[in-house]
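Hi R.,

Here's the chain you asked about this morning:
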Amino acid sequence: MRLLAFLVTGIVFLRWLWQIRVNAEALAPRGHRMKRGWTTGAWLVPVACFFLPKRIINDIWAASSPPDRPRRTDALLTSWWLLFVAAQLLAFPSTSRGPLSTEMAGAALYVLAGVLGIGVVRRLAAMQRARLHG
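And here is the predicted structure, written out as tokens:
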């Protein structure tokens, strides 16, 4: 059940991220260090999935920021990413890693990352709405 929830949530998030990236390209056509395909592909590359998606989201954040204050990141975005990566490292069962408490800690981090992720989604959407309508 957990895997199914993770997959469905991931697909919905990637669909949203793709659209927000398209919007960001309209706001700042030259403000992206990676091509659009990496928006979804970066999540699938072993090891690189721990840093490339954040780089892409940083570019989206900068493109969505007010033109007079472009910023690649902020505390909410960084906190969400760090919790998400920590959860990834802890949450899935491993015979070599030890007790169930490690998995439980990872699950708790996923919950916290999810709450912050909602904040990231809302803030990015608001930033883009402000730029597109302002």
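One quick note: The mean pLDDT is 90.

Cheers,
M.
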